[in-house]
Design goal:
This protein is α+β, with helices and mostly antiparallel strands. It has 2 domains: 1-54; 71-185, Glycoprotein, Type 4 Pilin (2-Layer Sandwich). The protein contains 5 helices and 4 strands, in the order αααααββββ. Strands 1-2-3-4 form a 4-stranded antiparallel beta sheet, covered by helices on one side.
Length: 190
């Protein structure tokens, strides 16, 4: 016969071992050994027998500080990016405007070829753009206005003008019958 205290001890041991209700209890010696092993898992080595290891609690504040950035770090990054962009943006704009100047050079070189074709057919250069357009000339640029400035029997000159970077200075390129490209007003350097 089991006394009330022994019954209570067995019930506590079942809870410690997480035995389901209705399962047959193991022999007392095995139960006591399992119970002592379960208790020893929570006791710190070298400490008092009744000091129990509690699971470490995760501190939410420390976790959030480790996973994010501080305001100072963000401001330092912002300052570095603004300094870099202060140098990079003007350099990029100069690169883009030089590429746009290539459109004027190409349009004037093409116009010279069509002027030479017109002179070969008619014996003189033309100062009318419609004559070159009839031969198939297209300037190929929307940034520059291409025009023939002078034309004669043996000479011609043409110009391309355009504001390629949005300031007040207008970029200007000229070409003659010899193919000499000149840039009297440079919008990139001014």
């Amino acid at each position: 016969m089991v006394s009330g205290v022994q019954e209570e001890n067995l019930r506590l041991q079942e809870r410690a071992l997480c035995l389901p209700r209705g399962r047959k209890r193991p022999p007392a010696q095995l139960l006591l050994k399992s119970y002592s092993m379960a208790i020893n898992r929570f006791i710190r080595p070298g400490s008092h027998a009744f000091t129990v290891n509690r699971p470490k609690r995760v501190d939410d504040r420390n976790q959030s500080r480790k996973s994010g950035f501080t305001l100072v770090e963000l401001l330092v990054v912002l300052i570095i990016m603004s300094i870099l962009s202060a140098f990079a943006v003007p350099a990029y704009n100069r690169y883009v405007t030089r590429a746009r100047q290539g459109q004027a050079q190409q349009a004037l070189a093409s116009l010279r070829q069509y002027e030479e074709m017109f002179r070969f057919q008619n014996g003189t250069y033309t100062n009318v753009m419609a004559n070159l357009t009839a031969l198939g000339y297209e300037s190929g640029t929307t940034l520059y206005a291409v025009a023939i400035t002078a034309a004669g029997a043996t000479t011609f000159s043409a110009a391309a003008t355009g504001n390629i970077d949005g300031d007040v200075t207008v970029d200007q390129w000229t070409i003659n019958q010899l193919g000499d490209l000149q840039n009297p007003v440079n919008d990139v350097t001014s």
